[in-house]
């Protein structure tokens, strides 16, 4: 039986007050199965990042219901939301947001800092580094890394807590074409182990790559509403 | 987490270090003033203890060196009811006129320093535990041989002609026509008063009582002999000493007391009056410490605010990875504590150095006493921890309340 991992029912998100309100999400209904690789595609301001933030419990919907892994996250207090983010979610951002004063492995371990880092955590961080292809850069200062390498460190950091769901907001936005492709391939490879992956992007090449994967699925969003598939050239990253 | 926070404390290296130095200087001030207060207080307490039960008696109308007391007075005091029975020991001295030794004053270290000649009775001074029992070099003077023992502090004064066996010339009249020679035969140990070196000091040289009387031309007389009689009473506290002072002063002719022209006083009661001045000084130190804590706290607050303002996105990401508000608050507090403790290390290091320099003889303050106590060190560390917590409180709250979605939306 296919397990529905994420459920959004009539979810709306409105910013501002009265006359100056902006509807970032408008009565969105969405179901995502466990283990799927999803791209959320849409123009700037369409609401794709808002959707990601709501699923990741970084933001609360104005109305509607959000269930992730059977947890109704809309009603959770801040303390439990932190715990939800720690145990369920791995975030990846366009700008990496690594701590420049720490080396690669220290950056990967930052989510565990408040919980006392053990030797097995270090071993795990090293294993993840091998997976993302930076096994020999563990002790390098992140300020000395390239954009692609930095994003790989950010991916490794997102994986350290064994998340059930990886949320990637424009992960290739600051990378060149080749590096971007390699990063998306890495993410897809990681998701194949059963982790649900949602990538927000406005890059059709990312959508193309994901669409060709058996677990891949694409969602289009426009003006806060899920819409039909738009027309994109889906072959642009093909060799 | 501690190591993580320590590293973060130096994200803006220069500002963090300058802030720690600022805090360090403040704490150094608290430490140094505390050490000098402790030193002065200990010295003061020591003086107070040494004067416990000691009462001095001089002539009522002409005090000090001009005092004239009769040969019979010590025995009279021993025979005085409610007084004599409690006298453990006594000492007598006759001080000569200033002009006897004033020729040497210019050779002393500070303007205002004086060299003075006094006569002692070796046996009585021996019972008392006076200078004749503290010879550290040479020997005690022999009676009637124009010999003298000198203050050990004079040995350190380069201009003063001090060697065992050398002579000191006493001017027996103001014109300097009549002189007498005293030979230095011993050096007695004398602790310094502990005040800064610009404070004038009196240095005493002693000879036997008979020699003094001969020099003063009062040999054979039985009155106008002593300038000071010191009595040590059997007492438990300074209040008891005061009581004996009152008893001696309250006797009148009506009580059959024949020496109403004398006055008694205790150095202890004078010192205890000074104690009030110390209380004011203590208050001043406390106010200063408070100002230091306040300004140090402000330095850390400003540094931390600058630091966290530039790191809001970072805190947002940490929250996105599962950090709770209290984790971020704790991180900022640890960072502030790191700055505070670094300040304490800087403050203590400079403070110890400064105390070493000021406590030595390198500066005009030379000789000032300072004591480095564990209490002083712990106080500085406590202030540093307090500063860290106060300084990190507001920035910590501000950082912990960051809303990731608001901060990251700005991208």
Q: How would you characterize this protein structure?
A:
Chain A is of the alpha/beta class and 239 residues long. Chain A has one domain (4-227): P-loop containing nucleotide triphosphate hydrolases (Rossmann fold, 3-Layer(aba) Sandwich), CATH 3.40.50.300. Chain A contains 7 helices and 10 strands. Chain A has helices at residues 48-55, 78-88, 104-108, 119-131, 147-159, 177-191, 204-211; strands at 4-15, 22-33, 37-41, 63-68, 71-72, 89-93, 165-169, 196-201, 216-222, 225-227. In chain A, the strands form 2 sheets. A 6-stranded mixed beta sheet of chain A has the order 6-7-8-3-9-10, with helices on both faces. A 4-stranded antiparallel beta sheet of chain A has the order 2-1-4-5, covered by helices on one side. In chain A, strand 7 (165-169), helix 6 (177-191) and strand 8 form a beta-alpha-beta unit. Chain A is globular, with a radius of gyration of 18 Å. The termini of chain A are far apart. Chain B is an alpha+beta fold and 411 residues long. Chain B has 2 domains: 2-46 and 275-409, no CATH class; 52-265, no CATH class. Chain B has helices at residues 2-9, 13-50, 73-79, 122-128, 209-216, 238-250, 267-309, 312-320, 325-359, 374-400, 404-409; strands spanning 54-59, 87-95, 114-120, 135-138, 147-151, 167-171, 179-188, 202-208, 228-233, 262-265. In chain B, strands 1, 2, 3, 4, 5, 6, 7, 8, 9 and 10 form a 10-stranded mixed beta sheet that branches. The two termini of chain B are 28 Å apart. Classes of the chains: A alpha/beta (239), B alpha+beta (411). The interface between A and B is medium-sized, with 30 and 24 residues.
């Amino acid at each position: 039986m296919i397990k529905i991992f994420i459920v959004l029912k009539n979810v709306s998100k409105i910013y501002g007050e009265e006359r100056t309100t902006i509807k970032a999400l408008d009565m969105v209904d969405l179901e995502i199965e466990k283990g799927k690789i999803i791209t959320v595609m849409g123009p700037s301001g369409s609401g794709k990042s808002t959707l990601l933030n709501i699923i990741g419990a970084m933001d609360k919907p104005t109305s509607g219901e959000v269930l992730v892994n059977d947890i109704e996250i809309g009603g959770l207090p801040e303390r439990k939301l932190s715990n939800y983010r720690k145990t369920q979610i791995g975030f990846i951002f366009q700008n990496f947001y690594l701590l420049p004063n720490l080396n690669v492995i220290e950056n990967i371990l930052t989510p565990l800092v408040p919980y006392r880092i053990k030797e097995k955590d270090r071993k795990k961080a090293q294993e993840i580094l091998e997976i993302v292809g930076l096994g020999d850069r563990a002790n390098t200062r992140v300020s000395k890394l390239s954009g692609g390498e930095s994003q790989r460190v950010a991916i490794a950091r997102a994986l350290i807590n064994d998340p059930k769901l990886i949320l990637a907001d424009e992960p290739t936005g600051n990378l060149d074409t080749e590096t971007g492709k390699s990063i998306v391939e890495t993410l897809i490879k990681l998701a194949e182990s059963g982790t649900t992956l949602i990538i927000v992007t406005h890059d059709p090449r990312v959508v193309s790559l994901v669409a060709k994967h058996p677990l891949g699925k694409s969602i289009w969003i426009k003006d806060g509403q899920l819409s039909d598939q738009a027309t994109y050239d889906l072959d642009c990253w093909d060799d | 987490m501690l190591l993580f926070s320590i590293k973060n404390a130096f994200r803006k290296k220069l500002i963090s270090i300058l802030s720690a130095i600022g805090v360090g200087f403040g704490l150094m001030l608290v430490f140094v003033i505390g050490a000098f207060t402790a030193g002065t207080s200990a010295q003061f307490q020591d003086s107070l203890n040494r004067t416990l039960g000691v009462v001095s008696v001089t002539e009522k109308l002409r005090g000090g060196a001009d005092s004239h007391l009769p040969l019979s007075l010590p025995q009279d005091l021993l025979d005085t009811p409610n007084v004599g029975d409690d006298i453990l020991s006594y000492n007598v001295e006759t001080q000569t006129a200033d002009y006897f030794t004033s020729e040497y004053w210019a050779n002393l270290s500070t303007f205002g320093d004086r060299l003075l000649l006094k006569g002692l009775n070796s046996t009585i001074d021996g019972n008392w535990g006076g200078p004749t029992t503290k010879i550290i070099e040479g020997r005690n003077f022999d009676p009637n041989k124009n010999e003298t023992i000198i203050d050990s502090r004079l040995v350190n004064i380069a201009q003063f002609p001090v060697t065992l066996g050398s002579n000191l010339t006493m001017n027996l009249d103001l014109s300097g026509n009549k002189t007498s020679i005293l030979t230095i035969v011993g050096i007695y140990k004398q602790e310094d008063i502990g005040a800064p070196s610009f404070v004038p000091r009196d240095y005493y040289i002693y000879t036997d009582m008979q020699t003094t009387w001969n020099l003063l031309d009062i040999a054979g007389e039985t009155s106008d002999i002593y300038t000071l009689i010191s009595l040590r009473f059997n007492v438990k506290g300074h209040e008891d000493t005061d009581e004996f002072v009152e008893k001696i002063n309250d006797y009148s002719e009506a009580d059959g007391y024949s020496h109403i022209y004398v006055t008694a006083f205790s150095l202890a009661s004078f010192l205890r009056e000074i104690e009030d001045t110390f209380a004011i000084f203590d208050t001043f130190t406390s106010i200063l410490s408070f100002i230091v804590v306040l300004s140090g706290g402000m330095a850390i607050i400003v540094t931390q605010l600058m630091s966290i303002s530039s790191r809001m996105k970072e805190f947002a990401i940490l929250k996105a990875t599962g950090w709770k508000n209290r984790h971020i608050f704790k991180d900022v507090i640890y960072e502030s504590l790191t700055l505070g403790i670094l300040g304490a290390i800087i403050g203590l290091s400079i403070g110890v150095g400064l105390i070493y320099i000021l406590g030595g003889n390198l500066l005009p303050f030379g000789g000032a006493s300072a004591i480095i106590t564990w209490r002083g060190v712990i106080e500085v560390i406590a202030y540093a921890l307090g500063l860290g917590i106060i300084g990190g409180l507001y920035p910590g709250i501000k950082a912990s309340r960051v809303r990731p979605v608001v901060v990251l939306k700005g991208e």
